Amino acid sequence: MCRSIKTLRPPAIPEEATEEEIRAAALQYVRKVSGFRAPAAHNREVFDRAVEAVTAATAELLDSLEVRGAAAQRAG
């Protein structure tokens, strides 16, 4: 997997991931899977849709995860 994608959930990061961090991870993922750093004009729309879909799925995943002990770590 792409080594530049970092873990976006506590305790790996101290606070919730920002929209910018989530989108950056999605972009790296789509780049890795597609093999394109920047797609050609005829692939731009599908590339951008993929980034948006992965961004949304990642945000949903992070919002839904239950991390044991995370509430205690934040309170302490």
Tell me what you see in this structure.
The chain is elongated, with a radius of gyration of 15 Å. The protein has 76 residues and is mostly helical. The chain is built from three helices and no strands. The longest helix has 21 residues, at 44-64. The termini are far apart. The chain is 57% helix and 0% strand. Helix 1 (19-34) packs across helix 2.
Throw out a few tags for this protein.
about 80 residues, elongated, about 0% strand, single chain, about 55% helix, mainly alpha
Q: The biggest beta sheet, please?
A: none
- Strand tally is 0
Label the overall shape. elongated
Strand content: under 5%
Topology as H/E string? Answer: HHH
The computed structural class is: mainly alpha
N- and C-termini, Cα separation:
34 Å
Overall mean pLDDT: 87
Can you count the helices?
3
Query: Uncertain regions: pLDDT < 50 for 5+ in a row?
Result: none
Helix content: 55-70%
What value does the Rg take, in angstroms? 15 Å
List strands and helices in order, with pairings.
Layout lengths: L18 H16 L9 H21 L5 H6 L1
In short:
This protein has 76 residues and is mainly alpha-helical. It contains three helices and no strands.
